[in-house]
Amino acid sequence: MYFAALLARTEDGWEASDRELDDVETLSDLADLAREASPEDDTVLVLIEQEDAWFGVVRIDGEEDPRIYVSDAAAAARSSYGEILLTDELLGREPGDDDPDLDALDLDGTEDGEPDDEDDDTAAEAVPHSPVGDSEILDDLGVSEKELRALDADDALNSIAEALGASEVLETVR
How far apart are CA 39 and CA 62, in angstroms? Predict the structure, then answer.
């Protein structure tokens, strides 16, 4: 089960809205959706969680590039919303690195169907079972890097909202 909410900082505090992410296919689409939530170019946080598996925070400050934090890249990689957040840049690889190199494949008809252990190791290294992204994403909002990394996926968004003073507005969209 997924939950996604936008928290937009305004002069009067935080405003929350829940948004359907079904039409969001790229990080750019997500950033545009977040910017729509704040006509004044204020800070907008996109909070996404998959129950008990992982959570992600995307921070949009006006027209700046989105800043991203994902609590468990490997878990997020197995979900459609997580794939949106796990950009090549975030994972430290060149665009297209995850595409198979067709020239390197042995296609002479003698394949025995056995998996290659080297390929499995490479794939595991590409998406780590650990946090990725900007762990200082919420420092100036009251959630330190150490606190962010210590959050459990099952209660992370509530803890973040509480630290921001936005737990009541987040609860209204849950």
Answer: 9
Cα–Cα distance for residue pair 43/54, rounded to 1 Å: 23
Q: Is the dihedral angle over the CA atoms 123, 129, 135, 137 positive or is it negative? A: positive
Count CB-CB contacts under 10 A for residue 82. 23
Token representation of residue 27: 């990080």
Which DSSP symbol is given to 116? Answer: P
Q: What is the mean pLDDT of residues 45-51?
A: 93
Residue type, 150: A
Q: Summarize the chain as % helix, strand, coil (round to 5).
A: 35, 20, 45
| Per-residue confidence (pLDDT) for residue 43, from 0 to 100 | 94
Q: How far apart are CA 73 and CA 63, in angstroms?
A: 26
Q: Contact, 84 vs 24, CB < 8 A? A: yes
Please report the DSSP string for 49-86 in residue order.
EETTTEEEEEEEETTSPPEEEES-HHHHHTSHHHHHH-
The answer, as to whether pTM is greater than 0.85, is: no
Residue 168 has pLDDT above 80, yes or no: yes
